[in-house]
Amino acid sequence: MIETPYLLFLGDAPDGLAAKVAQGIKDWRPENCVGQFRLEGCKADLGLQDMTLAEAKAAGAKTLVIGVANRGGKISQTWKKVLVEALEEGFDLASGLHNLLRNEEDLAAVAKATGRTLHDVRIPSVQYPIANGEKRTGKRLLAVGTDCSVGKMYTALAMDACMREKGMKSTFRATGQTGILITGDGVPLDAVIADFMAGSIEYLTPDNDPDHWDIIEGQGSLFHVSYSGVTLALVHGGQPDALVLCHEPTRTHMRGLPGYKLPTLEAVRDTALALAKVGNPDCKVVGVSINTQHMGDEEAKAYCAEVEESLGLPCVDPYRHGADRLVEALAAV
Amino acid sequence: MIETPYLLFLGDAPDGLAAKVAQGIKDWRPENCVGQFRLEGCKADLGLQDMTLAEAKAAGAKTLVIGVANRGGKISQTWKKVLVEALEEGFDLASGLHNLLRNEEDLAAVAKATGRTLHDVRIPSVQYPIANGEKRTGKRLLAVGTDCSVGKMYTALAMDACMREKGMKSTFRATGQTGILITGDGVPLDAVIADFMAGSIEYLTPDNDPDHWDIIEGQGSLFHVSYSGVTLALVHGGQPDALVLCHEPTRTHMRGLPGYKLPTLEAVRDTALALAKVGNPDCKVVGVSINTQHMGDEEAKAYCAEVEESLGLPCVDPYRHGADRLVEALAAV
Fold first, then answer.
1. What is the pLDDT of residue B71?
2. Residue among A131, A189, A225 minimizing CB distance to B225
3. Would you state the pLDDT for residue B9?
């Protein structure tokens, strides 16, 4: 659990895209963001107040979150200076970088001396159990995709936000680095040991109120041969009552696999639902979320209407059209 | 890669079952076994020659393999004495125990001083790649089960042995601790990090002669909610040309999951085949292997005949009836 609120470190980001983790935090948990910290030459700007470490500390920030990708796979000396000072000022540090904070000798030593915590969210911090498959109270939705990176996290965050706005009980459950940094908690599923994958998702989505929904971020795809095992662990560990299908229609092949075509939404629906019913016979597919970022307005609308017609399920792009119709379908479960 | 041949350490096994790893090595790779080493009070006997360390060394043994489960989850001082002496005599050590050899300070220090290797086969020794899904040359069979521990390893080992007897090109590919100790090589799949599971199986079953078969040991079940993700990584990383279904008919619920019924063989066939076709559209189900250990001879025969009739696939218990009919079906692929 990462302590909030955050000061977002944008470093020397060459453009806004490099700071997309920080952008995600600001978009989905603005209440967690006290301000931003930028180095000279930083080209990203979240529109938050620029703050020194001392100012952010005074404003209540608890953790400095590295919300930017580093260049060349190294944590530079320019960054280090800020990170060390932040520890000295009493901040914890949180990062989803491939190079772990804990492996940097200076950061590890200063964190130890100052009693601060280094959160490397790529690495599990918990010894997860083996899944026991026992029925849990409360309800769960899982986003499943035709492919990786089609908008499963976005869909889950948008549905969670919409549900809370409507006064429904909902918790977004992060299963990847960005989601964990956004919410301050979750399971870095791709880094979990094989035997404990499903158990980690049971751990993430425990017993809850009967009318509470866990909105579980999906990973990979049952049809992506590199990561499908991770996806199936979510389907079985998550014990979902509802699935939402996620798709990006302009993709010509599976991400990173030039020889592999995307499955149809029908194939994902049938395969995911049949497997989900092993863990929860009452599971239903409630809707379809389309990532229409590469389509014009009319094209996007027409495409969603077509899918809605052929699958008989509400179909929207939650970014363009809002998540309301998906949430209404969920409320009917 | 563990150096062969072995001296099999049976320790103070209270009965034959406690030494089942050693029994498996002796049954399936007798040519790898120089002899057995027993402590006073050992109740297991593989029928191999009892040897001192020096005798086994003189007979060519390279590795002392711990072929017995330890009691109380500790490596006892009685064992330690033998293990340390073995290192001093020039043996490597290999173990599938939960407590790792490398975590025992004395063993680690002596191994370092003597330049010997400690093989803890529960832990991957390789940095596996992410799966790339590229088509590989050669052929692959995967054993898939209705449940865990229904005879997938046995089926794969029996088919591999039968194929080699018939002069076919075949390699058993181990994916669990016992299989790795039997063959000296393999992937401890349940201990691999989630993102690299499918890649580890690609690594295990690389390009080969067009008429060569990798006979891949299965793990878990697509219908076992605790481990299904591991199974799917085998289905997609293994890129199988052929599947053999494995089942134990007297089981009343999924292993370790009292609330879960076993799937039908038809359900496993359809689910596994549909998923396997994502990675290899030509994949076929070639036969069924039944573990009839809890059935009488007549009952076993009748059960297999019934399954053969209803599924239209050759069905045998390879332990009772031999693996020939499964291998013939494979040869026809």
1. 77
2. A131
3. 98
Please tell me the distance from the alpha carbon of residue A287 to that of residue A324, in angstroms, as a whole number: 11
pTM comes to 0.95
Q: How confident is the model at residue B178 (pLDDT cuts 50, 70, 90)?
A: very high
Q: Which amino acid is at B240?
A: P
> Best residue in B227, B264, B268, B283 to probe A by mutation, most A CBs within 10 Å?
B227
Q: Do B278 and A131 touch (CB under 8 A)?
A: no
Q: Which residues contact B113 (CB under 8 A, 6 or more apart)?
A: none
Taking only residues 248 to 277 of chain B, the set having a beta carbon closer than 8 angstroms to any beta carbon of chain A reads: 254, 256-257, 259-260, 263, 271, 274-275
Q: Tally the C-alpha atoms within 13 A of residue B181's C-alpha that lie toward its C-beta.
A: 34
- State how far the alpha carbon of A240 is from the alpha carbons of A207, A326, B45, in Å: 13, 15, 50
Q: Where are the beta strands (DSSP E) in chain B?
A: 6-11, 33-38, 63-66, 92-95, 118-120, 139-145, 169-173, 212-216, 242-247, 284-290, 315-316
Contact between chains at A232 and B237 (C-beta distance less than 8 A): no
* Residues of A with Cβ-Cβ distance to B142 under 8 angstroms: none
Residue B333 is classified by DSSP as: -
Contact criterion met (CB below 8 Å) for A66 and A2: no
Helix (H) or strand (E) holding B263, with range, is none
Chain B residues with beta carbon closer than 8 angstroms to that of A235:
228
B133: left (phi over 0), alpha (psi -120 to 50) or beta: left
In the block, tokens 């390893």 appear at B153
In degrees and rounded to multiples of 5, residue B13 shows phi and psi of: -50, 125
**Cβ atoms of A179 and A217 closer than 8 Å:** yes
Return d(Cα B276, Cα A286) in angstroms, integer: 27
Residue A289's alpha-carbon distances to A24, A57, A158, B244, in angstroms, are 19, 40, 11, 37
Mean pLDDT for A11-23 is: 93
Confidence grade of residue B333 (pLDDT, cut at 50, 70, 90): confident
Mean pLDDT for the stretch of residues A291-304: 97
- Using a CB-CB cut-off of 8 Å, the residues of chain A touching B189 are 194
A150 min Cα distance to partner chain B (Å): 18
Which amino acid type is present at position B281?
P
Question: For B166-294, where are the alpha helices, taking DSSP H only?
Answer: 177-183, 197-204, 228-238, 265-279
Write down the mean pLDDT value for chain A: 96
CA A40-A6-A149 angle, to 5 degrees, is: 85
- Dihedral angle at the C-alpha atoms of A23, A24, A26, A29, nearest 10 degrees? 180
Closest residue by Cα to residue B234 from B212, B247, B215, B208: B215
| Residue B74 pLDDT greater than 90, yes or no | no
Instruction: Tell which A residues from 68 to 127 touch B, by Cβ distance under 8 Å.
Output: none
Mark yes or no for CB contact B229/A231 under 8 Å.
yes
- Work out the percent of chain A whose per-residue pLDDT is above 70: 100
Q: Are A286 and A323 in contact (CB under 8 A)?
A: no
DSSP 8-state secondary structure symbol assigned to residue A33: E
Q: What pLDDT, in 10s, does the model give residues B94-143?
A: 999 989 999 999 999 999 999 999 999 999 999 999 999 999 999 999 99
> Which residue in chain B is spatially nearest to A237 when comparing CA positions?
B225
Contacts A228 to B, Cβ<8 Å? 198, 232-233, 235-236, 275, 278
Cβ distance B14 to B72 under 8 Å? no
Say how many C-beta atoms besides its own lie within 10 A of residue B311's C-beta.
17
pLDDT tens for A56-80 read 999 999 999 999 988 777 899 999 9
